[in-house]
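We were asked to recover a plausible sequence for a given structure. The inputs and outputs are reproduced exactly as logged, with field labels preserved.

PROBLEM: sequence recovery
POSITIONS: 161
GIVEN STRUCTURE:
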């Protein structure tokens, strides 16, 4: 039941996200000309990948960056004061600092972090299962004491006679 509610809420959140994206992008799409020539062709892109995949990807992203729409969006973002404040806030946020790789990156420290998080997760699971076992044992003990307690049955039998 809870899993269904969580899945439904994730579904609704996804739909709302799609709606927000569409709401923001429809005005930009309306401004586009009806017939726009393509700056690149997929056929040419895939033919160039045989020569060098990284070179083809570099050319692909370079062509996208040279498109007029992308240039105008980047210019609007750079010139807006709200965007500058937002970028400054994002630059100083802890999430960005955590996600940006440091110059002193080592696989050993990454492995240590991953292993410690796995260890904590295993300990949490162990604690949860031990709590479940304890409650099951307490229930079983209560049932056994109720079965041994025949006082009311004896009293009932005595009153029937």
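RECOVERED SEQUENCE:
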């Amino acid at each position: 039941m809870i899993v269904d509610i969580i899945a439904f809420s994730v579904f609704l959140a996804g739909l709302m996200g799609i709606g927000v994206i569409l709401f923001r992008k429809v005005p930009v799409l309306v401004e586009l000309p009806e017939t726009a020539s393509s700056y690149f062709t997929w056929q040419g892109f895939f033919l160039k990948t045989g020569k060098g995949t990284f070179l083809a990807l570099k050319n692909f992203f370079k062509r996208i960056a040279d498109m007029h729409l992308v240039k105008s969006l980047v210019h609007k973002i750079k010139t807006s004061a709200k965007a500058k404040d937002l970028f400054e806030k994002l630059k100083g946020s802890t999430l960005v600092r955590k996600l940006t790789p440091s110059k002193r990156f080592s696989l050993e420290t990454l492995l240590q972090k991953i292993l410690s998080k796995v260890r904590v997760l295993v300990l949490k699971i162990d604690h949860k299962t031990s709590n479940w076992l304890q409650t099951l044992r307490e229930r079983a003990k209560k049932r056994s004491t109720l079965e041994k307690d025949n006082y009311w049955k004896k009293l009932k039998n005595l009153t029937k006679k």
